[in-house]
Specification:
Layout lengths: L4 H28 L1 E5 L2 E2 L5 H15 L5 H12 L6 E4 H10 L6 H8 L15 E6 L3 H13 L6 E8 L6 H13 E2 L3 E2 L4 E4 L4 E4 L2 E7 L16 E5 L7 H4 L7 E6 L25 E3 L3 H17 L1 E11 L25 E3 L3 H8 L6 E9 L5 E13 L1 H14 L6 E4 L16 E4 L4 E13 L3 H15 L5 E2 L5
Parallel strand pairs: 1-3, 3-21, 4-5, 4-11, 5-10, 11-12, 12-13, 14-16, 18-19
Antiparallel strand pairs: 1-2, 6-7, 8-9, 9-10, 14-17, 15-16, 17-20, 19-20
Enzyme class: oxidoreductase
InterPro entries: GlycerAld/Erythrose_P_DH, GlycerAld_3-P_DH_AS, GlycerAld_3-P_DH_cat, GlycerAld_3-P_DH_NAD(P)-bd, Glyceraldehyde-3-P_DH_1, NAD(P)-bd_dom_sf
EC number: 1.2.1.-
């Protein structure tokens, strides 16, 4: 086998450039609370290979070349600016610079594009906001990972405590086991950093963050101010209480707001970030992040309704099995869910379709839904079958959804993939609410069928974090501003 010297030299050159980007990205994050993105994908704490792969993936979406040789000058220009807390997309900067015909230098163009993050307009770095996790299961641990990652700048959200039920065994053993579950995950891999346990103080120390582990069987037992926690946002990952009365029990001393990681009932607002998060009232203390499936279907449903109009629709979700099913056949209050999850496809119900009305009250279309649980541990797919208000074709829908994923306000919620051989495991760790599979899209006249992948664990956890950031006042602006 012969080696193409030009290709190898080009690779080594790009590898060297990506390596030089890492300290700049890290310094911007640590010292100025700036998160560097590449077409909505964070480059913070990424390896050389990850940076190169992110550039390649972005190129596949945008349909045009994008190399580290193009994005490095924009990163260097950012490093020279006096930036405030923000998210800055160097992929968008590079793409918009190509289409700009004013002859500006990279430095001048960059300064203009991120003007809101500099000078008198910039946000000043605050003290941050305390966060408490109530429950430490699948979603709780992933939200914890994200919160620890977000604390890298020393500002923003601060995970202060985790509340779990009192165990029957020794407390120090319980603490070590919970730390181990945070450290290693069979689906999402190793925790990126270091974790130690301080048994004497009932504390987990993750990447320097001291996280108090509090044992309680009921919210009424707790006074968070005793742990130095104040004005905190509590994230309930248990789903035990889903109405306002039940969730109000969390409003104990030290807690200001409660965010539920399950669909809320009654008058509890169900929030899908990117779609209706701006409807949250400043004095609202209790809200829900709806379900993973609701977060997956509502953003693309809104996008399709905005452009084509939606008269009616049906969503069929093929969903990975979850902890509320049995490993082997056993008693369950839901008959089918009592059958072995790893061995069967299980027909079940989904409330996602009815939840659409709460997140999209202006949508007049009737949406129905059903679901099948299948023997995979993570990543699901929603098949969204829509009758549109006008006829279109596959190319128009594809071009539109690709543009939505790149430049619209929904670009953090909707991703787009063209890979013809993509399967569910390829989307483990996706930070988007859903990913449009371009190859599977079907359009005929006024009928469109969208295939939407979603990491029902990690992608949903990212949506939860976005809602928490918004209600805590530390959701920083993104530059360049997305197209409306």
């Amino acid at each position: 086998m012969t080696v193409n010297d030009d290709s190898f030299t080009n690779w080594k050159n790009r590898e060297e450039i990506a390596e030089s980007m890492i300290p700049i990205i890290g310094k911007l994050h640590r010292e100025r609370d700036v998160t560097v993105l590449l077409h909505s994908r964070s480059l913070v704490n990424k390896s050389v290979v990850s940076i190169l792969k992110t550039h390649r993936f972005a190129r596949q979406i945008a349909g045009e070349e994008l190399s580290v040789t193009e994005t490095l000058p924009f990163l260097q220009a950012l490093a020279a600016l006096d930036l405030g807390p923000s998210q800055i997309d160097i992929g968008m900067l590079a793409a918009t610079y190509k289409s700009d015909d004013r002859g500006l230098s990279v430095e001048a163009f960059t300064a203009e594009a991120v003007a809101g993050a500099t000078g008198a307009n910039k946000i000043e770095r605050g003290e941050g906001r305390d966060v408490v996790l109530y429950g430490f299961g699948r979603i709780g641990r992933l939200v914890a990972r994200l919160l620890i990652e977000k604390s890298g700048s020393g500002n923003g959200l601060r995970l202060r405590a985790i509340v779990v039920r009192g165990g029957g065994g020794r407390a120090d053993e319980d603490l070590v086991k919970r730390a181990s579950l945070l450290r290693r995950d069979s689906i999402h891999g190793q925790f990126q950093g270091t974790i130690t346990v301080d048994e004497a103080n009932s504390t987990i120390v993750a990447n320097g963050n001291e996280i108090k582990v509090i044992y309680a069987n009921d919210p009424s037992e707790l006074d968070y101010t005793a742990y130095g926690i104040k004005n905190a946002i509590l994230v309930d990952n248990t789903g035990k209480w889903r109405d306002r009365e039940g969730l109000s029990q969390h409003l104990r001393p030290g807690i200001d707001k409660v965010v539920l990681t399950a669909p809320g009932k009654g008058d509890v607002p169900n929030i899908v970030h990117g779609v209706n998060h701006d409807t949250i009232k400043p004095d609202e203390q209790i809200l829900s992040c709806a379900s993973c499936t609701t977060n997956a279907i509502v953003p693309p449903l809104k996008a399709m309704d905005d452009e084509f109009g939606v008269l009616r629709g049906h969503v069929e979700t093929v969903h990975s099995f979850t902890n509320d099913q049995n490993l082997l056949d056993n008693y369950h209050k839901s008959e089918r869910r009592g059958r072995s999850a790893p061995l069967n496809m299980v027909i079940t119900e989904t409330g996602a379709a009815s939840a659409v009305a709460k997140a999209l009250p202006d949508l007049k279309a009737r949406i129905t839904g059903s679901s099948i649980r299948v023997p995979v541990p993570d990543v699901s797919i929603a098949i969204l079958n829509l009758q549109l208000a006008r006829e279109t074709d596959r190319e128009e829908v594809l071009d539109y959804l690709r543009d939505v994923s790149l430049t619209s306000p929904l670009r953090r919620q909707i991703d787009f993939i063209t890979a013809p051989d993509a399967v569910s495991s390829d989307f483990i760790g996706s930070r988007h609410a859903s990913i449009v599979d371009a190859g599977a899209l079907k359009v005929e006249g006024d009928n469109a069928i969208l295939y939407l992948w979603y990491d029902n664990e990690f992608g949903y956890s990212c949506q939860v974090i976005r809602v928490v950031q918004h209600v805590s006042g530390v959701e920083y602006p993104t530059y360049p501003a997305p197209a409306v």
